[in-house]
Amino acid sequence: xxxxxxxxxxxxxxxxxxxxxxxxxxxxxxxxxxxxxxxxxxxxxxxxxxxxxxxxxxxxxxxxxxxxxxxxxxxxxxxxxxxxxxxxxxxxxxxxxxxxxxxxxxxxxxxxxxxxxxxxxxxxxxxxxxxxxxxxxxxxxxxxxxxxxxxxxxxxxxxxxxxxxxxxxxxxxxxxxxxxxxxxxxxxxxxxxxxxxxxxxxxxxxxxxxxxxxxxxxxxxxxxxxxxxxxxxxxxxxxxxxxxxxxxxxxxxxxxxxxxxxxxxxxxxxxxxxxxxxxxxxxxxxxxxxxxxxxxxxxxxxxxxxxxxxxxxxxxxxxxxxxxxxxxxxxxxxxxxxxxxxxxxxxxxxxxxxxxxxxxxxxxxxxxxxxxxxxxxxxxxxxxxxxxxxxxxxxxxxxxxxxxxxxxxxxxxxxxxxxxxxxxxxxxxxxxxxxxxxxxxxxxxxxxxxxxxxxxxxxx
Length: 460
Fold this sequence. Notes:
Elements: H1 3-12, E1 16-20, E2 26-29, H2 31-34, H3 54-59, H4 64-77, E3 83-90, E4 97-105, E5 112-118, H5 120-140, E6 146-150, E7 157-160, H6 163-168, H7 174-177, H8 188-200, E8 207-213, E9 219-230, E10 236-245, H9 247-269, E11 273-278, E12 281-285, H10 287-292, H11 306-309, H12 312-323, E13 334-339, E14 345-358, E15 361-370, H13 372-433, H14 437-459
Antiparallel strand pairs: 1-2, 1-5, 3-4, 4-5, 6-7, 6-10, 8-9, 9-10, 11-12, 11-15, 13-14, 14-15
């Protein structure tokens, strides 16, 4: 590249650039240097023009930074140091700016190149970050959770709160040299999963729940979460995290799980149908209730709606009541008919018992009894009662007929005696009167008596 190209490149740079000869004289300054404020306190810029002694000007600036920079530039020019760097403020209050100056020796015939950059934004960001870190540190000193702040690669630990020693049971100091030393305490069964989570977190954000083993042999459950801290350009510059000891929560959770399992085991054993539902949807049904509806082991109605199982004649009237059945209101037990696995309908008496928590949500516990056999027995009894009434009526009729028969038999017997006397006297009379009108009349009497005797025999 030609000197003109080099010069054009230097002129286009946003940084201030100056070149010194071996005596420290400014032999070149770029556009950014020339247009900078004409203020000696800048330690560069318009007040430091070509042809002037840069080291002398710095010493005359009247500031500690100027004297320090003059010494640094002299060291580079005289070969005592390969380069020199300094950050210094310019101005004060809201107008304060920060400049970063780097001086590098050019070798050969000597001389140096001076590059000045405005780092005000970075300094302010660093100051804000330091302030935020201080506030976080002050907060972290007074919480039970472990708070930590590290670089994105976990190569440098900026801070870990005192709670680490309480939770991990180990001193914090070793983490300064080995920021990942805390992972050595992770339970062997959980370590691989935690390290995998950390490795997969491109931006440093991850969360995990794991166990640690403390030096005293006790086991603690930890719930950890990290999140990235970014600069205004979106670059991850820190990773902050919180690790909480959730052992007591875990123990309570496990106790609740065991209680839940024991409750379900009891519900499976009792000879009463039990249904857990929310707004009519079946969430759980014990073996007894399933058997009522014709379902065996392994078969389930979970997810079904009770109102869909109702008899069509009852669906419209009872469906809303089933959905709204709660143990904490005035709902009473009621009899319903539900569809059996066979397609027939069985009668169940259901009663809301109480509201319980199931899978973390409040649900209604309903007790059920199969009253199908009872209703069939009642129907059979009603039918039996009707048959009994019919037989009793038949018996009463028969008894009446029998009474009439006995009465008729008695009368017929007496009448038969009278007919016998009459017929006997008629025979005697016929023998006395012989033929003639009187005999004809007696013959008529005899024939009538014979017919009467025949009728009497039939009654007897």
